[in-house]
Specification:
- The structure is a homodimer.
- Chain A contains 16 helices and 21 strands.
- In chain A, strands 7-6-13-12-11-10 form a 6-stranded parallel sheet. Chain A has a 6-stranded mixed sheet with strand order 17-16-21-15-14-18. In chain A, strands 1-5-3-19-20 form a 5-stranded antiparallel sheet, covered by helices on one side.
- In chain A, α10 runs parallel beside α11.
- The radius of gyration of chain A is 28 Å and the shape is elongated.
- The N terminus of chain A is likely disordered.
- Chains A and B meet through α1, α3, α5, α6 and α7 of A and α1, α3, α5, α6 and α7 of B.
- Chains A, B: Belongs to the NAPRTase family.
- Chains A, B: It catalyses: 5-phospho-alpha-D-ribose 1-diphosphate + nicotinate + ATP + H2O = nicotinate beta-D-ribonucleotide + ADP + phosphate + diphosphate.
Chain lengths: ~500, ~500
């Protein structure tokens, strides 16, 4: 895996990636003499996506990148001036020109943390004017990242820890960066790799890919490779004409499968040979361009066996259409008999990869059987129209049992002392009418201080570290909450003081 | 509206925004001696999105930007080398380093054209290796842009030509560029403006916005504005203490509405005054932070009437929750009585804007009544699992009746002569079993040559020009096809020669 090439956000969002009403409000604050007032906003969600009981927090790294690079250049200020009234006081634009995030402080759940409804993912505090300008870009950076990471985590739970999951959604992404974000956070949430090369280059996501149908159809079979010779894997011995060797093997394979030697498509075979010449150590056959049974499979076997003679082992096959599970089972059967017939044991267990619109349901069906799955996380953000928010600056703690399992999360006022391990605590679960008591064996603070007055307080974990942390976090969640359909809801509760404040403000109609 | 600031694609996609399998296939072609083979691919869709019978073609400008900027820098080639086998021939990487789009030709539907299933949006031809690398980024750039433009066009059809439609989806977009793309192509498809400032700066989209709830809640009412004085609109006469004037007007307004003068929220009023001081010519009241009837509306009226005394006219109010239509009707009633009571006729017709999760159905309900609507186009791409594609390089024509109405689109082989106006033509509608004849009064070629051997052939229209073209195109579509639900499907037909080729290839099992 490559290291991250863009730690300082050259590919990060630009400062004007914000809603105009943030800029008009900034002018309003400035005119009211309130630009430097201290303010805080929190990002949180009201309902877990995809019908689940958990979400993964993600996007913090992009937020920190954005903050550190945040600065309005002359062109930015000029554009804002063109969008604001022409008689706006020029001193406002001078204020914008001098703006940076040196007064901004960020607390957040570590990247890859479990997150529950109402618990802030991010708390941003600092001068009112700058904090207002940051609201839209930070929301944009956190909400989609968390959604994708959560979706990926769900697919990983379905697939189990050992299956290889590849993200291949770039073609259908919401524009270039929609794709970059999706690839990055699919990996964070538990995928193994992405087809998106830019995500590899800029974010260090492992990249993977072999060939598509267009490669296969581009060969007619009449092409003459300029150099069909391939040296043995060990480097010793004479080169072999791979194309000729494949034709010899094809006869044996067709005999074994009961096919006529004219049936497998010549162009497909030429494409496989071309690919094998370029990637003798990483040959994968895409089986379903013409006919899996009459063409793709025999052509793959002929090339794989010709490579095998030279000491190379094919890495697998891929299916991209039809009933993936049924075909995979039948292909496995053919591999078993061919392995015996030709005395090539590894052929029994050659990986079968599948792709093509794989959603949670299809993955559940496939996961029992297959080794590798490619697909695109699906996005759907369920929103609660209720707009009430909890007042004041809050602290959040996770209470754990003696076995390390998660009991509940508590939100309280920032000035309250933290819950103590071993001490009984009365809390008010959100949405419940009654309080309850809980005695945690361990207490973990949820929000960590990452940026203080514009300065990074501790190194951000790498993407791969956050990915590992996400999987650890998911492991500690009880199966009842981890369940993807109709899960038991995980409780988020308010402290007695916070609940009392909410009650007081509600009675006054202020919420 | 600002001019476009990024014509050459500084904000365009990067060259490695592609799937790794495109790069592995490139190596395969290169190893097979086929890098310079001439190749062509077409981008098209199989089914119109959102259950409609039309789509708008969009994204060409981004494609042209991408092509013109396409060049693999050293860092890009080094990254690809790290992702490919370590024994890959170094000459391949030299080939990549020298790669550009000087051999690439692009034909495409003009931006904003009506597009129908099977008709290519884009035909890209050139050397096989480079065309393969371009496939993913161009797909990514065209499909999402067309989807958003189509969605925006549907919402515009529902709203009618005169309502003002604002796109405000940035907070929920797929990352920064997902938002930029959505804002740009919502405008192309028929929206009037976006809240996204970056879309204004980089793409020339008109931007709009006023204030959000957070501005209102940030004021308690105890703030003392450093300068509450406002000069009359005409510039003549003494400055007035706006805050004091608003308090005077509030008493009259509350008397008229039968409210106690203590009921309207002080903080909300302070926020409105602060906003009015900053934007005396563009004051808009966001009414639903506390109570529309007991607070938002009287506070708005007090500020609007105080501004009116100084010669300023408020631009309107906005509602962001609840039953938008019902509230809007009642507010209109209050504006009418207040206009009469206070002798301010323009108050009768002050614009009422609404926002909050407005989909096609809600918009249809609202459009009867309201002037301005903000919302986010919803995306859903329906896909057909059928993967068969039509063979060969194709030309496409639109046949029109004598009144300029659209009859059908015809796909034919590139070498066939074009259909002639006034001459009968036999064609095979896709999905039908029978041929039909058609005698067009006019014939329009659909695909235009934009880039030839890497050179732009004619200037691209501006975004605003494409937007106007899109609306003209939609006007020519018959109401039966334009209908958003259960529309009559518009026919796309094959020429006799193309149909014969398809039949021949199908019989041979090659499709």
């Amino acid at each position: 895996m490559a290291a991250e090439q863009d730690p300082e956000g050259l590919a990060a969002a630009r400062p004007l990636l914000t809603d105009l009403y943030q800029a008009t409000m900034a002018l309003g604050y400035w005119r009211a003499g309130r630009a430097q007032d201290q303010a805080e906003f929190e990002l949180f969600f009201r309902q877990c996506p995809f019908g689940g009981a958990f979400a993964l927090a993600a996007g913090l790294r992009d937020c920190v990148r954005f903050l550190r690079a945040f600065r309005l250049r002359d062109a930015d200020v000029q554009f804002l001036a063109s969008a604001l009234p022409s008689d706006t006081d020029p001193a406002f634009f001078e204020h914008l020109r001098a703006l940076d995030c040196s007064g901004v402080t960020v607390r957040a759940l570590p990247e890859g943390s479990l997150a529950f409804p109402g618990v802030p993912l991010l708390q941003v505090s600092g001068p009112l004017l700058v904090v207002q300008l940051l609201e839209t870009p930070l929301l944009c950076l956190v909400s989609y990242a968390s959604l994708i990471a959560t979706n990926a985590a769900r697919l990983r739970l379905i697939a189990g820890p050992d299956k290889r999951l590849l993200e291949m959604g770039l073609r259908r992404a919401q524009g270039p960066d929609g794709g970059l974000t999706a690839s990055t956070y699919s990996y964070l949430g538990g995928f193994d790799a992405s087809s998106n090369v830019l995500a590899g280059q800029l974010r260090g996501v492992p990249v993977a890919g072999t060939l598509a149908h267009s490669f296969v159809t581009s060969f007619s079979g009449s092409e003459v490779p300029p150099d069909p010779m391939l040296a043995p894997a060990a480097g010793q011995g004479a080169q072999v004409d791979l194309a000729a060797s494949v034709e010899t093997w094809l006869e044996r394979v067709c005999g074994h499968l009961g096919l006529g030697v004219q049936e497998p498509h010549r162009g497909e075979r030429a494409a496989f040979v071309a690919y094998a010449l370029a990637f003798p150590r990483a040959f994968q056959g895409l089986l379903d361009t013409y006919s899996v049974w009459r063409s793709g499979l025999p052509n793959f076997l002929a090339v794989a066996l010709a490579l095998q003679e030279l000491g190379y082992q094919a890495v697998g096959v891929r299916l991209d259409s039809g009933d993936l599970l049924q075909q995979a089972r039948e292909i496995r059967g053919v591999f078993r008999t061919a392995a015996a017939q030709f005395g090539v044991p590894w052929l029994q267990s050659v990986p079968i990869a599948v792709s093509n619109n794989i959603d949670e349901e299809e993955l559940a069906r496939l996961a029992q059987k297959l080794v590798s799955v490619g697909g695109q996380p699906r996005m759907k953000l369920t929103e609660d129209p209720k707009k009430q928010t909890l007042p004041g600056s809050k602290a959040a703690f996770r209470l754990l049992g003696s076995d390390g399992s998660l009991l509940l999360d508590v939100l309280q006022l920032a000035e309250e002392p933290p819950p103590q391990a071993g001490q009984e605590l009365r809390v008010w679960p959100q949405g419940a009418r009654e309080s309850r008591t809980v005695r945690p064996a361990h207490v973990e603070p949820l929000l960590r201080l990452w940026v203080k007055q514009g300065q990074l307080c501790e190194p951000l974990p790498s993407l791969a570290e956050s990915r590992a942390f996400a999987q650890q976090s998911l492991h500690r969640l009880s199966p009842a909450h981890r369940r993807l359909e109709q899960p038991a809801l995980y409780q988020v509760a308010l402290s007695e003081k916070l609940q009392a404040l909410v009650d007081r403000l509600s009675a006054r109609g202020a919420l």
